[in-house]
């Protein structure tokens, strides 16, 4: 068996268990030596003769899938998101696609909560000011007693809801497939999307990027939000119209934003850069030692299961 492994963090010590598992199964392993996600011809060249492919944030478009060698039987995503994988094209080619749902839920949830605290209290800007010898006075916003709206009550959203409840926040949730039993048990109030946006002091996004969700936070929806609300995004950058968000921040319609995902990654230029109340992190939500270990092992186990003709709960097609 020959496998391609492209996640840039797969060489970290935290992935030793996954590498040992993979090396005990595969005859040959090709690693991504570029330090960046792959696309187009670069990806196809590395797939030559490959049976299984453990994928990072590569661009697995329909064109790439259609030109993959016939030996490829499985694409095992190292992570939960599959918006860069053309699953329909994979299905046409008979290539199974798997992912690792829940493996990084705690890591992403904790970063989302950290970004919320940073935006509410302007912590990064205050830190920088004190380091520069300044001693500014800043009026922050308490989270206790505020209304927290979660868009997408999946594995991450559920963990975040429980933490928000511990901070004495009222928690609202919107999800097309809402887990009503979980919501009722934990005092989470279901809302339609626009109602949630109108009521929430803080909104956190936890949905995949699709044609329907692209720019779901746009100028019109922002205009109907509470003045001075905060938006957190640790999911996908295309969920937010960044130009509209920048305008809302300058006008005071939005108080702040905490962003781990951007329309352009790596981030080179953004209309949000330098605005008060905005906190950036480099799409690092899943990057804890614990999450890296869990994702690596699950991704390898998924690939091996498919290649052995066994069942796995994480097949998407």
Account of the protein in words:
The chain has 317 residues and is α/β, with parallel strands linked by helices. The protein has twelve helices and twelve strands. The strands form two sheets. The chain has a seven-stranded parallel beta sheet with strand order 8-7-6-9-10-11-12, with helices on both faces. Strands 2-1-3-4-5 form a five-stranded parallel beta sheet, with helices on both faces. The mean pLDDT is 96.
Short description:
This protein has 317 residues and is α/β, with parallel strands linked by helices. Helices cover 36% and strands 15% of the residues.
Gyration radius, rounded: 21 Å
What is the tally of beta strands? 12
Individual helix count? 12
Rounded average pLDDT: 96
CATH level-four homologous superfamily name of the largest domain: NAD(P)-binding Rossmann-like Domain
Q: How helical, in percent, are the residues? A: 25-40%
Share in β-strands: 15-25%
The low-confidence parts are none
Domain count, please report it.
2
Helix and strand string, N-terminal first?
EHEHEHEHEHHEHEHEHEHEHEEH
**If classified by CATH, what would the architecture of the largest domain be?**
3-Layer(aba) Sandwich
Kindly report the spatial arrangement of strands forming the biggest sheet: 8-7-6-9-10-11-12
CATH hierarchy, class of the largest domain: Alpha Beta
Biggest β-sheet, characterized? 7 strands, parallel
Structural class: alpha/beta
| Cα distance spanning the termini | 22 Å
CATH fold topology of the largest domain: Rossmann fold
Shape: globular
């Amino acid at each position: 068996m020959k496998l391609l492994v492209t996640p840039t963090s797969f060489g970290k010590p935290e992935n030793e268990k996954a590498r040992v598992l993979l090396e005990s199964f595969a005859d040959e392993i090709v690693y991504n030596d570029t330090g960046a996600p792959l696309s187009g011809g670069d990806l196809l060249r590395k797939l030559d003769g490959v049976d299984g492919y453990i994928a990072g944030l590569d661009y697995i478009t329909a064109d790439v899938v259609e030109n993959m060698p016939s030996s490829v039987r499985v694409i095992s995503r190292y992570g939960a998101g599959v918006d860069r994988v053309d699953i329909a094209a994979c299905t046409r080619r008979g290539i199974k696609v798997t992912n690792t749902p829940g493996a990084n839920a705690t890591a992403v949830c904790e970063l989302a909560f950290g970004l919320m605290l940073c935006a509410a209290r302007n912590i990064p800007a205050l830190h920088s000011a004190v380091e520069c010898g300044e001693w500014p006075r800043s009026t922050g916003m308490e989270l206790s007693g505020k209304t927290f709206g979660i868009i997408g009550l999946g594995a991450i959203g559920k963990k975040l809801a429980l933490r928000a409840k511990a901070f004495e926040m009222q928690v609202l949730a919107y999800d097309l497939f809402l887990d009503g039993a979980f919501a009722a048990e934990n005092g989470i109030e279901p809302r339609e999307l626009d109602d949630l946006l109108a009521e929430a002091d803080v909104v956190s996004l936890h949905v995949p990027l699709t044609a329907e969700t692209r720019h779901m936070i746009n100028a019109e929806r922002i205009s109907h939000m509470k003045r001075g609300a905060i938006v957190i995004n640790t999911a996908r950058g295309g969920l937010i119209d960044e130009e509209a968000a920048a305008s809302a921040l300058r006008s005071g319609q939005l108080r702040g934003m905490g962003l781990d995902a951007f329309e352009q990654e790596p981030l080179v230029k953004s209309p949000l850069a330098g605005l008060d109340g905005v906190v950036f992190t480099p799409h690092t939500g899943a990057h804890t030692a614990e999450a890296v270990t869990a994702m690596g092992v699950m991704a390898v186990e998924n690939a091996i299961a498919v290649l052995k003709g066994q069942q796995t709960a994480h097949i998407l097609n």
